[in-house]
Amino acid sequence: MQKIMDDYLLLCFQVEVCGEKICADMDDIGKGIVELIYQHDVKKLVMGAAANKHYTEEMMDLKSTKAKYVQHRAPHSCQIYYICNGYHIYTWEGDSTCSSTNGFRDPAYVMQQRTEENAVELELCEVLQSEEESDNPDASEGRNTEQLYSQLERAFLEAEKFKQEAYEESRRRAEAERKASKALYRAQALENLYGKELRCRKGTEEALGREKEEHQRTKNQREEERLIIMDQRLLLQIRASNFDSKMEELKDERLSAVEQCEEYKKERDKLLEERDNVLRLAQEIADQTLREAEEGSCSHTHLSLFTVSFAETEEATSNFDPILRIGETRLAKIYKGVIHHTPVAIKVLNRHSTLGSQAFQQEVDMMSKLRHPKVAILIGTCEEHCALIYEYMPNGNLEDHLRCKNNTPPLPWKTRMDIAAEICLALTFLHSFTPHSIVHGDLKAANILLDYNFSCKLSGFRTCRWPSLHENLRDIALDPHFYATGELSSKSDVYSFGIILLQLLTGWSSFTNPTEIRDAIDGGNLSSKLDNLAGDWPIVQATQLARLGLSCCASNLTIRPDLETEVRGELESARVSSSIADEIDSHENEQPPSYFVCPILQEVMEDPHVAADGYTYEAEALRGWLASGHNTSPMTNLELQHLNLIPNYSLRSAIIEWKEQQ
């Protein structure tokens, strides 16, 4: 009640009307309203005609007993407006001429005052009458009568004067009370406005603080990206410089050959043949130099692991404090630590076990050679503790986000589609690794780590330790063929990847029955199985991913799709088409989306094709890049596993549609 009345007073103050709040405690509401009308000389009253639930469009009369009681008992000077559910129902017109002229005065008090005045006048008349009856001809008595009349007249004048003074005093008092009330309500309104402004300011300051933190975080990430780009640019400049120097040498040889050709015209054909031989030899030397440089880079990468001492490992983990433990497997415990002011993940194997020592050496030998943007990087070792130092991934693993563990925020559907494409890219790199293909063997949500930008990296390779059919595999989405035969192959990773796809779609942290998704697709109600926490999934792309996941989970491993030639292209198509649909829905297509622009030409593509690195380029630009002797990705600078190009028809259609809209 107090809040509603305060809101009315604030409204009155805003339109510069002086209002007053009066709260009365009455046994009968109707009688209480009538008493307040008489006490305060109310001229206009608004009250309900009935409860809101009784309102109808045909309602024309009063249904509330309180409203009827007030109508019958209210004075004619009060005009009453009856409403219901925000609609005007009925108006009871009163006699406005009956209102008091002295402000808010009690009618009982007015009647009492008039009665007292009449009594005084009656008493004075009786005195005059008695004087007349006892009148005698004596002159002195006549003068006494005149004096009495004179005194009576003066008494009337004084009484009238006192009445006027009392009225003026009452009016001034009422005016002072009105001003005081107006000042009080103005103060209350200002206090309410001040409170609202204070709360608004506090909220603004909190939002500004969060914005500053986000800005600092983004600034740090951009600084890291800038340093990486500078390193890559420096490497490209060095290579370009080497190629330029060799080209200069070849140009000098060519000029020398031309001069000899001018001097010895007769030997022109022979010299041209020798020049061609020199050019071919120079190209072979350049190719051999490039291969040696790349081999040297790999060797350098293998030797770039830094060694951490026994004491540094204990200091980084606070003597292996359980509070810093972020993971645990059968052979190792994983801690979060800081080494050389850098957050790292320290994987400590059981050094007292022969199996642990063998697993340590095997993991060092393999992970030190793997360098891929979507594979966790091994950056150091500690042989005394049998520990491996990996880069730290601040957003944990995919399983925590699917389970929303420790209030971990759920991942949007766009991020989940990006994660699926990145996992496929990493598996393609592992399966095409030379000289021997690498099988992950333990692909599950817990082994998919997420960085600041929720970009994923693979970890927990089964081939980095001694696999055994007797270890506990209940929580691993492994190939049924592996359960039956114990043979681990790249098709086993394809099966596990299909399970990951279905988990990303449904949000289920564990998956044992893919046929439930197949039944939902056949029944046309796949949307009921999708994770609502990821947002509004585009149903066409979600169905495409679900079918792709089911094909990867086929029981017969011979019919499972190939990640390189089938899965990657379909994932890229689904990502692009969903991004295009979202871009059009948000009406932000005035500028070309970033995925419309070729990374090489920095122009909107005409004929987009997907390369082996998973990125989309203008076909002619990428063919020119490959024809110039490059066999590495323009984006990652890693060697391309093959030189095949896959047309991206979905992206091409989207680009054409965008151009027509422009």
Compute the CA-based radius of gyration. 47 Å
Range of helix content: 40-55%
What is the tally of helical segments?
Answer: 17
Strand content: 5-15%
Tertiary shape:
elongated
* Sheet/helix structural class: alpha+beta
Overall strand count: 14
Uncertain spans, ≥5 residues at pLDDT below 50?
A: 96-111, 281-303, 465-475
Note the main sheet.
6 strands, mixed
Kindly state the mean pLDDT as a whole number? 79
Strand order of the largest sheet: 4-8-9-7-6-5
Compute the separation of the termini in Å.
58 Å
Protein described:
- The protein is of the alpha+beta class and 662 residues long.
- The chain contains 17 helices and 14 strands.
- α2 runs parallel beside α3 (65-73), α12 (490-506) packs antiparallel against α14 and α13 packs across α14.
- The longest helix is centred in the first third of the chain and has 125 residues, at 139-263.
- The two termini are 58 Å apart.
- The model is unreliable at 96-111, 281-303 and 465-475 (pLDDT under 50).
